[in-house]
Amino acid sequence: MSDLGTAVAVNNGDNGMFFGCESLNRISFLRSDIEFIRATMNHSSTVFVVFVNGEAVLDKDKNSILLTHLKDDTKLDDAIRKLVPLMNTAGIRMLESGVNITFLGLMEPDKRSADVVSDNLFIHKDIYRGVPYYGIDIRPNSGTLIKPEDVEHLLKMETVKRMSVFEMNNAIASLYSHAKMYLNWLGKFKYCPDCGSALYPVDGGTKLKCSNPDLTQYCEVRDLPVNNVCFPRTDPVVIIAITTRDFSKICLARNKRRIGSNVMYSTIAGFMEPAETIEKACSREIWEETGVKCSEVSLVCSQPWPYPVNLMIGCYGIVDFNGDNEIINLNHDDEIMDARWFDTKDISEAIDNYSGKGFVDFSMDKITFPGSTAIAHHLIKLICDKFKRSQGSL
Ligand SMILES: [Zn+2]
């Protein structure tokens, strides 16, 4: 726990890793209650996080994503009223309705912003109370139930640029991440991976069912006794800071990306493969990308990353120098351009001088390191802190 605490301590003043701040109670057990879904969808307090063609709409005045109260948008309210009866039916599919909708959770009273009045909460069974939040991705055409003219005011609005999300506060960026990952999944998975029939969302847009009506045909998705639905996807990615047992050195690598005239050195990262432990995925990625042999991996913390649906699993790996383990060899994989062992002391100085915004500048060789919105920053800082502690300076 102390490692985790150290890793997330510097984080824009918000709670938790960037994209990982959970403002909503997801109350996942209520998603299957269709009456709960119908009632929350058009409650007077309900807030929609609005996306158009897969990207969030920008609220220019607030430099935020657009959060629309249904009571303030009669056109969206009218559209939602048409969609409510279609929930849990094939008619709610994007291709027929023109939208994807997903239930995100309840913003409970203690997490509410001051502008939400206290007598306007949704209350379920006198236990669960708050403001319901939904994500909606609008992609209408002339053949869909919701027509482009029904939501023209939203279609005309500017959408969020990727880098601007990193300027938003963590609570908003995390809400964006939450909605984007569900809506991205709903947008991509339209057909049953076994029989090819149309999939349709159930449980408030958090699961997909196969619609194949032919019961004489066996379908792995429809007919399996337990997991007879498609669940949302999260792709696990391992991300590792490579260090020595005394934390005095850190191995970082760079790809082709440039930050202005600077180059970025960062931690190694790669997708996990099926039937692989987190630890083995780390040592494989380290060896494939740098040639370095690491046999001891520790798990530190994780970060949701909505580009498109990743979970970054942060680790550090210890390399025992023996004249062979530490040798860098870039010939296995052409993914990175360079890798090198830095002195932790030098990186630590750069991080100590970091303003907290943007990237970390290294005084030498026009090099930058990742800023605090990236888990890589926290992993590198963790090694720096461990080194300082070993030197008695922290
Ligand atoms: Zn099927």
Automatic annotation (TrEMBL):
Pfam families: NUDIX. GO terms for molecular function: metal ion binding; NADH pyrophosphatase activity. Residues 232-364 form the Nudix hydrolase domain. Its cofactor is Zn(2+); Mg(2+). Keywords: Hydrolase, Magnesium, Metal-binding, NAD. Its EC number is 3.6.1.22. Gene3D superfamilies: 3.90.79.20, Nucleoside Triphosphate Pyrophosphohydrolase. GO terms for cellular component: cytosol; peroxisome. The keyword Metal-binding applies. Belongs to the Nudix hydrolase family. NudC subfamily. This is NAD(+) diphosphatase.
